[in-house]
Every structure is written in structure tokens, then in C-alpha cells.
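If your schedule permits, I should be very grateful for your opinion on a structural question. Thank you for your consideration; the sequence and its C-alpha cells are set out here:

===
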Amino acid sequence: MKHEITRRTMLRGLGVTMALPWMESLRVWGDVAKGAKKASEAPVRMAILFSGCGYHKSEWWAKGEGKAMELGKVLAPLNEFRDKMVFIRGLYNKEALKGNIHSSQTGNLLSGAPLASGGRISSGTSVDQYVAQRIGRQTKVPSLVLGCEKSNPGVHKNYSLLYSSHISWSSPNSPTPLEVYPALAFDRLFKNKAQAGDQSVLDAVLGDAKDLRRNISQLDQQKLDEYLNSVREVEQRIESAGQRGELQGWRPTLAKPNMPRPKDGYPQDIVEHMRLMSDILVLAFQTDTTRVCTLKLNNDHGTLRFPHLNVDYMIHHLLSHNDTNDWLKVNQFFLEQMAYIARRLDAIQEGNRTALDNTMLMLCSSMLTGHHDATQLPVVMLGGGGGRIKGGQNLNYLGKPNRQMSRLFISMMDKMNVRPKTFGDAAAPLDEV
């Protein structure tokens, strides 16, 4: 029997693709199985949070180190994580200083690339997408790009406001599609996945296997049965090992969502919106659905209001130009989102470390203050990067050479085994991170 094919024959089912062994009645060619081994430890994740317009001029600071570190009022929500914190001062993007407006300072925040003006769009691939393009095949979703404020397609002082609306860029000309609807973000991660994850690999492909049997020889039918039985045996051994607590290699702490699907639509309550997106980020890491995520809490030229803080008289962007107590309350609200995510990750045990220990959770803005000061960027990081980042550090690069923001990105990528020789305008990592 001759059964011509033009690529490697696979058994396919819901969420499952299984390669076949050599058969006399099929020319099984094309892909070569790589058989990657399971990691013995939980993977390192990268999460980047962004809030626009900088922070309160006199309350973004840190003094000392470790648990004795003193924090300014903006950072007060992170007090419990001082021993897992790296506070960084003095890094900047040289290219961001050319326009001195929101769009020109945000569009290359995560890339350090030159920006096109005149309403044209050209930036650089951001660090999250650079990593996703190299390791994203290891998870169902290469990267998760979330937001809590819709993008603005306008132009401001010769620069596209898409720069202010996106921190993640898949290529110099393409901002990564931003998901602002929690229900759709949830669906992207988990729709149809729970069903596939709850059944065995074999159960998922049995229908395809039955179809295949009709087109192969009796000898190959026997070979197929032996192959499927061997897969079933391995599955049962893994399941048995899991019940005895003898798992070989790391497994996610959750196999399927432990929260209900969010309601359809765009949440009108900003508190609920940010909390849902934060929960989805944690859930994505906990289920190993992705290892790379950006969460844009608002736009850099944003129009959010904060009635729950009794700050409803002025939009976020205008608030940022006045260092008032109301501006401080808004700043702390954003930092509370970071603290919430960190608290949830730190409660998830993954072997000898927590999920926070295995994560790099960074918060940044594209200017230090609302007065457009981008000569030094506000950066705070929580988490241990898989045990490779020392916590309790207070780093100041002001007055030092080579203080490119992209040096931090090279350091972060190194923890995820992604090692470019250069990135943005930098050619070396930060030794301390």
C-alpha cells in the first residue's frame, strides 16, 4: 500500500500533536523529534508592569539596603518585599531624550531604539518580545500583553500616540496587539485548554489514530498499537509518580484555571480591571501557559480617573504635573498592583523557592516625574530570577558611565538563557543584576 505525504505525519487532537514512529506503509519524513528533557526546576518568568507619567517628585526614593531599606511614600506598598527588591536609579534611554514628550519617551522604553517622528511608526523590538521570539515555543502562549486603558491612535507634537499606548513591540513597525478585555485575555490562555489538559494525550488523539489505521498495513497496525501502548504506560507511570509525590522534573502548580472566566466586556471599575489583569498574569505563570508578560496599567498620556481614591476631578496625565497628595495616592494605587502580584506569586511554592523567587517582576515608567524628566528612569524589581538575582539591593548609576536602560534588559534576558551580544544601545549587562 502506498500512502504519499509531503510532511511529517502526526496524530492530532484537541491541544495535542503526537509524532509517529517509522512505518513501512508511510513515508514519514519532515520533522525530526528533538525530545527535549523536562527541566528539573521551575522556569524563570519575566513580568514588566508600566504606569505612565512618572511618580511624585519627592517620594520616589530608597535609602539603605536589605530589610533595613527605607522607602519613599510612593514605594510604601512594597515594604514587605524589601529583602526581595532591587531599587534602581540612574538608568535612561538616550534616544528618548530627543522629543521630550510622552510619546517620544515611551515608544522605546523597552527597546532603547530610535523612534520615527512625523506621525510615522518605527521603534524597536521590545525586550519581552525579543525573549518571546526565542523561548515562546516552550509554552502555549509565547507572551501575554495586557493593558487597562485602550490605545490612542492620535498624534501629539509630531509623534504618534501609539508610542504612548504600547510598551510591547513585536517588530520596529508593529506594536504587539494589546488585550484590554479580561475575558478575552482569559480565553487566549485557557479556552479549550482545560478539556485537553484533563484527558490523556492518547485520549485526545484516538480519533485520529482510528482514521490512520484504515490506511496502513497490518504490520504497521501492530506497530501503531505497540507505540500507543508504550505512550499509555509512560502516562500512567507519570500519574502514579505524581500521586506518590515522586515527580521527575518540574510541573506547574496548577493544571487548569482556579478562577472563573471574567465577564464579557470592558470593566468600568478600574480597581476591578487591574485586579483581574493581575490575577490573569499570576494564573498564566502558575499554569506555565506563558513565561513572558507585560501589563500596561495605563497610557503614558492617559485619561484614567480614580473615583475610588476621591480623585475624580482631573485625568491622570494632568494630575502628574502637580506633586500633590492626590498624585501620591494615585502613585501608591499603581504600586499596590505590583505588591498584590508579588504577594500572590510569593504564596506559590515551587520546590525550594516560590514563584516570586523564580520571577523577575519589574515596574517602570518612561519618565521620573510628570515634568518629563527622562534623564533617569524609575525602576523597581521584585523577585529572584530563579535564584540568580540578589534581593535587598539599592543601586544608583547616576554619574557613572554606560547607564543605558538596555543593560538591565540584557541582564534580565540572561536569567532566561537568552543572550544577545547587544540590545538597544547596550553591549553589556549590569553586573549587579
Observations:
- The chain has two domains: 1-36+194-265, 45-180+267-415.
